Amino acid sequence: MGVTDQTFQEISPADFFYRNKEIAGFSNPARAIFSAIRELVENSLDATEPLGILPDIYIRLSSLNEGEDENIYVLRVRDNGSGIPVDYVPLAFCQFLFSSKYKLKQSRGTFGLGGTMTILYGQITTNKPVKVISSTGGQKIYEYVLMIDIERNRPVILERRIYNNDSKWHGTIVEVNLEGDYFKAMPKILEYLKQTAIVNPYANIMFIDPKGRLYKFERTVSVLPPPPKETLPHPHGVDVETIYRIIRVTKCGTLLSFMQEHFHRVGKRIAQRFLEFAGFPEDADPKKLKPEEIVRFVQAMKSFNGFLPPDADSLSPLGEEILRAGILKELEPEFVAVTQRKPSAYSGHPFIVEVGIAYGGKISSGEDIILYRFANKIPLVYDESGDVSWRIIKSINWRKYGLMPGMPFAVLVHICSTKVPWKTVGKEIIADRPEVSREILNGIREVARQLSIYLARKEKIKRERARLSIFAKYLPKIAELSTKLTGKEKVPNINDLLRRAKKFEED
Ligand code: ADP
Ligand code: MG
User: Fold this and answer.
1) Percent of the chain clearing pLDDT 70 (strictly above)
2) Which residues line ligand 1 (CB under 6 A)?
3) Looking at the domain assignment, is residue 89 inside a domain?
4) Which has the least CB within 10 A, 217, 235, 243, 261?
């Protein structure tokens, strides 16, 4: 016998996520129920908003309560989205790493696993299949009952029914059984829904919890963010593998056309300059590049600074109007300021930072500053302390703005990108990239300045008012006294004077 008796084995992607559930946010029953809701809601938002549909999302969580099974729930999420083409339903929901979102444009889902993970978790905790009902708005509605063959990462179709779709309904309903701990997860779930409503004020979201309580988040704007457009890779963001993949499919016979055809914002002049910089002839055939030449080509791409920065067409930021509407609707503050920073890029990935500040009204004052974080219109409600925005909030000298922790104000930071710089796979914390943190810092400073102007003005008015009230208190006495002193009979009418002073204050 040799030194080892190892056996080797290959596992499927489904099996991998089965063994590593915590990676996808399913580490315990409380977290699992939170993640299940989050993943299905995000799929619903992705299936509506970018397609120009105002989202109507209905979430119902009911407890099965069969004797001991207090922790088994049925989660049903319904949307009015695009629906899923009939043949794709089983793959979309029961095969890991199968997605319509592996594209270079902003979306909520990106890994091809959120919805599928929810179903896998449901299956391994309850041994029950998932039910999916969907229609793309055509003649038929399809209903599937499905399970996942975890070892093979394949869907198993248990039942399939077809209904007529007379009303031309389009959308998707997912119904999954799963083990969870709703009451432990409840604060986070409600927080998640509220914050989802802040950044999606164009959505109607309804949630019925296991106790039958209804939480309603109503649409207050009917405009949608600009839909993202698919884009080509930026030369600063590519690696050797990307170049190989493009070479495999390209029809371009020269490097000059190759550069212009496959990369973001590369025109003829820039392509020529780059090739000269990199030391490759313009008419070289990309398919004939040797491995070491490809490495040199990629290195040159990264170090050439004559490329144009990525444009923001692939992004779908909220815009100031929607962000303001969302904040006003859910936080009901006395004052709000928002700003959208100019598009920027890190490592060839475009991003936009949007920041808001809200003060007073229904915002409560706690010990710490309230921070709401969002990435690609998803609220991030776990693991706050490791996030770049939190570090920046802590580094700011708030007194400079007439603010300090303990005052009722909240800061919102939204970053959208084709590649959000996540710190971890859990999609909860944003890493500290200097390009990104600079924009966050400048955004916060800008809205803080606006709030500081508002507060200074408010303070001034308060002082004026105080002066006026002293004035109003003593004026009658002064009038009386001066009347006596001057030996006049009739006290002058002071009402007019008071009214004029009040008017001055209001201006
Ligand atoms: P991801 O969202 O990362 O792509 P998921 O496993 O959550 O991965 O979903 C897989 C695919 O299923 C999606 O890319 C999408 O095409 C489709 N899908 C999921 N939910 C819906 C829905 N509610 N409406 C339309 N399509 C959906
Ligand atoms: Mg998803």
Assistant:
1) 97
2) 39, 43-44, 47, 79, 81-82, 84, 92, 99-101, 109-116, 172
3) yes
4) 261
Calculate how far, in angstroms, residue 333's C-alpha sits from the geometric centre of ligand 2.
32
150 and 281 in a single domain? The answer is no
How close is the Cα of 323 to the center of ligand 2, in Å? 23
Q: What is the pLDDT of residues 373-399, one digit of tens each?
A: 999 999 999 877 889 999 999 999 999
Maximum CA extent, the chain? 126
| Span from the CA of 341 to the centroid of ligand 2 (angstroms) | 27
Model pLDDT for residues 134-145, shown as the tens digit of each residue = 999 999 999 999
pLDDT digits (tens, 9 = 90+) for 196-252: 999 999 999 999 999 999 999 999 999 999 999 999 999 999 999 999 999 999 999
pLDDT at 504: 61
Q: Considering every ligand atom shown, identify the ligand nearest to the alpha carbon of residue 38 and give its number.
A: 2
My answer on whether 443 and 466 are in the same domain is no
With beta carbons less than 8 A apart as the criterion, state whether 271 and 256 touch: yes
What digits encode the pLDDT tens for the residues 417-436?
999 998 877 778 999 999 99
Number of domains in the chain: 4
**What is the rounded CA–CA span in Å between residue 121 and residue 128?**
10
Which residues fall within 8 angstroms of residue 170, CB to CB, at 6 or more apart?
A: 80, 81, 82, 83, 135, 136, 137
Q: Residue 242: which CATH number?
A: 1.10.8.50
Residue 227 lies in a domain: no
Closest C-alpha to 112, from 93, 98, 95: 98
The pLDDT of residue 248 is 93
Asked if residue 340 and residue 429 are part of one domain, the reply reads yes
Closest atom of ligand 1 relative to the 108 alpha carbon: 2
In a domain, 222, yes or no: no
Mutate which of 100, 117, 376, 377 for ligand 1? The one with the most ligand atoms within 8 Å of its CB, which is: 100
d(C-alpha 33, C-alpha 41), whole Å: 12
Helices (H), 175-334: 182-199, 240-249, 255-262, 268-278, 291-303, 320-331
Indicate the average pLDDT of the chain: 92
The CATH number for 184's domain is 3.30.565.10
Note whether 129 and 266 are same-domain residues. no
**Domain stop point among 410, 435, 454:** 454
CA-closest residue to ligand 1 atom 26:
84
Domain holding 298, by residue range, is: 235-303
| Closest alpha carbon to 173 in 132, 214, 113, 116 | 132
Q: Which of 217, 245, 278 finishes a domain?
A: 217
- Report the atom number in ligand 1 closest to the C-alpha of 43: 20
**pTM for the model:** 0.90
